[in-house]
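FAQ: What does the model actually see?

It sees only this:
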Amino acid sequence: MDNPNYSTETRKGQHLSFEEREEIQIRLKDNWSKYKIAKSLGRAYNTIKTEIDRGTVEQYNGRIKRYKATVGQIKYESNRQNSRKQYKRLKVSRFVKWIEEQYRSEKWSFDVCVGRALESKEYSRDEMVCTKTLYNYADKGLIGIKNIDLPEKLRRNTKPKVVRQNKKNLGKSIEERPDSILERKEFGHWEFDSVLGTKKANEPVVLTLVERMTRNAIWIKVRDHSAAAVSEALSSLEVEFGDRFSKVFKTITADNGSEFAELIDTKPDNTEVYFTHPFSSWEKGTNECHNRILRRFIPKGEPISDYSNDDISFMADWANSLPRKILEYKTPEELFDEQLDLIYSVG
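And it is asked to produce this:
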């Protein structure tokens, strides 16, 4: 690296300025990597990656692709103009507080509270949520009433029985993975998964990648739940990290889902791929825990198409900037950057 000791402070929660977009355009012409640009600007890697994807245009009948700061700015302003989504939980805080008070003082059920509020017209429809949503809030810890406080709910089995079908093993079993990977003392071992919104055909999904040692996550919105879409995403990461890819991605562990059927053919020779046993999500538990973080933003059944690449990038940045007790209260982003600094300093 030309200058491994960047002095720029990281700016979180701030949108890129046009001046920063111009800086990105200049550095890309100088053949800087996305990671190096992120370090220089004090920005998260995911933020820079999303911005470059958004502002890249085709020229000369598609023969050349270049990032343009003006295009990135125009698309950003357009997205901001169309962004009207609010988190419903914040909007109904007054109603939720009233629910908690009624439950504790009168022992009313959620359904009684909702029905009473509608009858009394104390709250408008926009200020309320339905009974089912209140139970979902209890599941997610978004309300001051826990499932253990709802004895009737605990007695009910709401999950239908599912007849499991055998899945095809796509490659090396996780049993062949070196035991040293379990110790999390070496950087470069990743777990892959995909998060669905709806189950409609051709619906976009989020490809989730988590590095085991640093717990750093890369979340990528891909066009659909297909092996081809995952292969495209992996190929884009190879382009971004170049000849350092096999040092950043030493191993990949995925499940036997059909979307990972082409991993063996797509990955570079120096990257090993392992697959978990069928129906054993706990074998890549780090990724599963991060998927639950993603579900805080995108509940099950909500279309991924409702969220832009910027939204997904914001969610990943939030997760990566969250201090973790298991990391001695450092953030995944800090530890990930330290490891990339070591890799890039070698040259």
